[in-house]
Amino acid sequence: MRSRHFGGALAAVLACALAGCALIHHNGTPYAPIPPEQIQLAGDIHLARDGWPAARWWTAYGDPQLDALIERALADAPTMVVARTRVAQAKSDVELAQAGTGLQVVALGLLDREHVSANGFIGPFARNEPALGLTGPWYTEGIVGLGASLNIDIWGKQRAQVAASLGVHNARLAEVSAVELEISADVAQIYYGIQTNYQLIDLLEQSQQVTAFAVETHSARAARGLESRTLVEAARAQQLAVQRQIVAARGQIKQFRESLRALLGAGPANLPDIEPVPLPKSQASLPATLSYDLLARRPDLQASRWLVESSFDRIDAAKAAFYPSFDIKAFFGVDALHLGDLFTHASQQINLIPGLTLPIFDGGRLNANLGGARSASNILIEQYNQAVLNAVRDVASTGSRLQDLDAETQLQTQKVQAVAFARDSAEAHYRRGLESRLTALEARQPVIAEQVALVSLDGQRLSQEIALAKALGGGYRAETPVELKPR
């Protein structure tokens, strides 16, 4: 009978507690994630090869110098150190949230020297009557023992807080991969910017040799009265134009090296020399479809997705705060008004205190917290949706630009071959004594100019290839692509 009465009383208490809870007014409406049909490329964007970037996509170029630079940047770059530190911080936040879910035990020690008030609720102890056990008004109280507390997570508030912290930690891990991708792409872009300028300088120096010979030849003819000074100055102007281009290319290399130094965190004397190498052939490829594969392969999108998941857990925690919370506190130890009696059997003390906290009127604090959590979640969802659209745009724009560059490169290659015919003809006439050496050398200038244009196109193509690898997420791949479902 007593058991049934106790059970009925407990049920009544719980019913009253739930009925007395603060009411949810500001839950709000979750925003929708981006639909799959918007994660697609236009049908007219395609490249000669299909596929996603490899795990270490830059190694496909077969350049040990580039491999070493990227490995060094990924190990030492200041931005990588910051990203890894943020992961460590997020891990500490997870451990802190998990620490609040278990049993908490502390050791207590208290020494209290007090003067008892004769008019207080223990007024009799203020008298000094040893026969009655009263030795007031001064006492030295001692307490030694263990205190424990346990929050009973009935509504899942603490579990949701832990899950939210784990979501942020996973986001920080994905952000490390995003930073790695950013750094590797930047290093590759700068490296091939340097190599492109090396190729340009080599061609321009060939052109400079031609212009120097032309200036020398026209000057000699003008000195003998065979030509006007106008031809000398015209040749000199061409020579100065080529020299200016060489100076600009060398200045560009210096700027690239300083950018590379900043990426690597290198000092003024420990940046390795970069030797000229031929520009690699095209490695670009584009998958036939993007869909949710793009979401799984872009680390920045995965980081954004984890932050959205974390925001859902924060909403769950905010909802759970409307319901009663239960905890149990306990104490086991000794307590005595006289230190001499502290460690006697009679001074033992045990406290067991179940507790219930019921939010009824909170001035709107809980609803404001829930509304803020929902609004923050909706903002993250919209930011995620925009990031997905931006990712598709990046792939589309770089893929389309590569298409155009492939076509331009083919046409430019044909143009170089066509111009080279005139050069070969002039050199053949020179070898037979039908043309002067100056005419044969000057016939090289149009070919060199078109070769400069072709090298520039190759440099742009490499830059776009690297940008495409970055837009496709590099070698990153999440375990499973997860579709966002707002709660």
Automatic annotation (TrEMBL):
Record's family? Answer: Belongs to the outer membrane factor (OMF) (TC 1.B.17) family.
Check the record and name the PROSITE patterns matching this protein: PROKAR_LIPOPROTEIN
- What is the designated name of this protein? Multidrug resistance transporter
GO CC annotations on file: plasma membrane
Q: Where in the cell is it found?
A: Cell membrane; Membrane
InterPro entries (alphabetical): MdtP/NodT-like (IPR010131), OMP_efflux (IPR003423)
Query: Topology relative to the membrane, per the entry?
Result: Lipid-anchor
Q: Which GO terms describe its molecular function?
A: efflux transmembrane transporter activity
The primary site where this protein sits is membrane
Which positions make up the signal peptide? 1-32
**Keywords assigned:** Lipoprotein, Membrane, Palmitate, Signal, Transmembrane, Transmembrane beta strand
What's the superkingdom here? Bacteria
